[in-house]
């Protein structure tokens, strides 16, 4: 089982942990975020989003920025560019079409913006991005600049939100998770952000893919707040330290399963794959995002 690691860049911790602010506005925020995820291919009028939130544009933009630490326009730009990076890395879709789907009126404006965020213009990212380095190293002894370590790990209790569908859209589940945690006052400093992936997108229909957006280290609820209790697998794990865009992570999985695992003498255990995220895509450049991929192994 492997997980396609094309993740929505919506995984984040909220900028504001004021439970009063979140309890007042979380339902409105959820409506807007769900609308954005469902309509990334279409023009998104920011004032129309304020109508969905049932707030005046003036107040809506201030509330959103206070809660999330970025403007609504920045959120839309980030999500669209992340999806565009996935299309460039894993499809042959023409760059001009990728630019149109990302909402850019001209190829030149898309090229400038993409380069400013990802460090390479779209054509060079497709030809020589991080995903290409993993593919090139498929038959080598190790991936350049990356390593796999073996760790014995205990089961880690988690609170999460179940997600069904494309792994690309798990960011929606993280948005809902943090809204519920913040609005119920369960947030604590040092919470860890993880995701569990239960299916292989190469053989499972997209609509049936199962995953969980989760956190470790928050307070435990005393009532039902709509969160599921789960845990990470215990035992020996292969841990791949990945630094770079989420959109390029699929090739890291291909290398882990196709190159490292056969040479390692280990076999994968039943259970979910786990990713742990160590920084916030709202304020971290894609090339600096750090993720650990944890593959549970069978006992020797």
From TrEMBL:
DNA repair: present as a keyword of the record? no
Question: Which Pfam families does the record associate with it?
Answer: GyrI-like, HTH_18
Read off the PROSITE patterns from this record: HTH_ARAC_FAMILY_1, HTH_ARAC_FAMILY_2
The question of whether Ribosomal protein is a record keyword is answered with: no
Specify the domain of life of the species encoding this protein. Answer: Bacteria
HTH araC/xylS-type domain mapped to chain residues = 30-128
Keywords, A to Z, come to:
DNA-binding, Transcription, Transcription regulation
* Protein name according to UniProt: AraC family transcriptional regulator
């Amino acid at each position: 089982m492997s997980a396609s690691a094309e993740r929505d860049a919506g995984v984040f911790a909220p900028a504001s942990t004021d439970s009063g602010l979140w309890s007042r506005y979380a339902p409105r925020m959820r409506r807007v975020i769900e609308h954005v995820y469902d309509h990334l291919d279409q023009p998104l009028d920011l004032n129309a989003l304020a109508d969905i939130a049932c707030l005046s544009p003036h107040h809506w933009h201030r509330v959103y920025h206070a809660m999330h630490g970025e403007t609504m326009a920045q959120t839309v730009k980030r999500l669209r560019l992340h999806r565009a990076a996935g299309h460039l890395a894993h499809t042959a879709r023409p760059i001009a079409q990728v630019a149109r789907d990302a909402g850019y009126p001209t190829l030149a404006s898309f090229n400038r913006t993409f380069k400013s965020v990802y460090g390479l213009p779209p054509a060079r990212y497709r030809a020589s991005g991080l995903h290409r380095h993993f593919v090139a190293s498929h038959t080598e002894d190790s991936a350049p600049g990356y390593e796999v370590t073996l760790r014995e790990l205990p089961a880690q209790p988690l609170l999460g939100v179940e997600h069904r569908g494309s792994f690309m859209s798990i960011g929606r589940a993280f948005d809902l998770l943090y809204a519920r945690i913040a609005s119920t006052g369960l947030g604590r400093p040092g919470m860890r952000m993880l995701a569990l992936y239960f299916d292989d997108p190469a053989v499972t229909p997209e609509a049936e893919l199962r995953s969980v957006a989760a956190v470790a280290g928050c307070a435990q609820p005393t009532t039902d707040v709509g969160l599921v209790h789960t845990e990470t697998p215990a035992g020996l794990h292969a841990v791949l330290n990945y630094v770079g865009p989420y959109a390029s992570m699929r090739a890291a999985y291909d290398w882990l399963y196709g190159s490292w695992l056969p040479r390692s003498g280990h076999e994968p255990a039943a259970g979910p794959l786990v990713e742990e995220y160590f920084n916030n895509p709202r304020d971290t450049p894609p090339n600096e995002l750090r993720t650990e991929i944890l593959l549970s192994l069978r006992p020797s």
